[in-house]
Design goal:
alpha/beta, D-Maltodextrin-Binding Protein, domain 2, ten-stranded mixed beta sheet, globular
Length: about 325
């Protein structure tokens, strides 16, 4: 009899374990390259969700960045993604780099932080302005990526096109290596600051960042209103003066298929679980900036519910 009871208890424990496993929710956050901001921050957010949401098992995956992340969500191969606001808008409206490829299977959870479009060259380079890129070998990110789109827009504001440069389609780390080894002349890097690849380059070969002129900034923003204008502080990379940059906003987006309660819990965790997020950019994730760069992109109902609850968003 005792043996029977022992077997029965073991079976019940096994069934309980199986039921718990089947009840777990497995989620994937599509991020970016390993030397950018998206990947480590995405891993930090994945850890946050695992620790605060019962049954959630969350993994951050390295990807090609914004455009790929939206396509992964659309294909059902990712549940969330870190994405530039401009690329999100192009996808949602089927314009610009997403011409003929409209994607509306995602919605916004929150705005995360400002991303600077940084044009990097070696400290000893003779390049001093955007127009000096003409005829040079320039890294512009993966074809169709957010960085690629940013590069096109900056070149356009200076009266240049891809035909005017020798375009190289490199990752951030590949761009840094290319600059260090003098295989390329400059690189576009759109990321939060400081960027690890630029910092590493600065510690070896030395770096210089190219400022946009006020006229170039005005032309670019007039043509593409998803951009803003900020000065990149000189101290970020030990430069002699601040750098005039255009910026976009990093968003956390998710699949429309995610349940309202799950996204509500995620949004709540982002803004209320102090001490779990350890990445430097966590300090920029605040309710005061939760909608910066969101524009007319839709909020997920779960996120909207949280914002209404804390009166960050009106019920309407």
């Amino acid at each position: 009899m005792k043996k029977f009871i022992a077997i029965l208890l073991a079976a019940m424990m096994l069934m309980g374990t199986l039921c718990s496993a089947s009840a777990a929710t497995f989620l994937t956050i599509a991020t970016g390259g390993t030397t950018g901001t998206y990947y480590p921050l995405g891993g930090d957010i994945a850890n946050l969700f695992e620790k605060t949401i019962d049954g959630a098992s969350v993994t951050a995956e390295a990807t090609g960045g914004s455009a790929e992340n939206l396509r992964l969500i659309d294909a059902g191969d990712a549940d969330l993604g870190t994405v530039q606001n401009d690329v999100s808008w192009f996808a949602y409206t089927g314009t610009d780099s997403f011409e003929g490829e409209q994607i509306q299977s995602f919605s916004v959870v929150a705005s995360l932080y400002a991303e600077y479009v940084q044009i990097v060259t070696r400290a000893d380079s003779e390049i001093t302005c955007i127009s000096d890129l003409k005829g040079k070998s320039v890294s512009i990110g993966a074809a169709g990526s957010g960085v690629y789109t940013n590069a096109l827009h900056v070149l356009e504001a200076a009266g240049l096109t891809l035909d005017d440069i020798n375009a190289q389609y490199l990752s951030f780390s590949e761009s840094a290596d290319g600059l260090k080894n003098k295989q390329i002349d400059a690189a576009f890097i759109c990321a939060g600051i400081p960027n690890a690849a630029i910092t590493e380059l600065g510690s070896t070969a030395g770096v210089k960042l190219i400022s946009l002129t006020d006229d170039e900034v005005q032309k670019l923003i007039a043509a593409h209103p998803t951009y803003g204008n900020l000065k990149l502080p000189a101290a970020t990379y030990g430069l002699e003066e601040d750098v005039n940059c255009v910026v976009i906003t990093a968003l956390l987006v998710c699949s429309n298929e995610l349940e309202e309660e799950m996204v509500y819990q995620m949004t709540k965790a982002l803004f209320e679980q102090e001490g779990i997020l350890t990445h430097a950019k966590a300090a920029e994730i605040t309710l005061d900036t939760a909608f910066v760069g969101v524009g007319e992109l839709p909020l997920h109902p779960g996120a909207q519910r949280y914002y209404q609850e804390v009166r960050a968003l009106t019920a309407e």
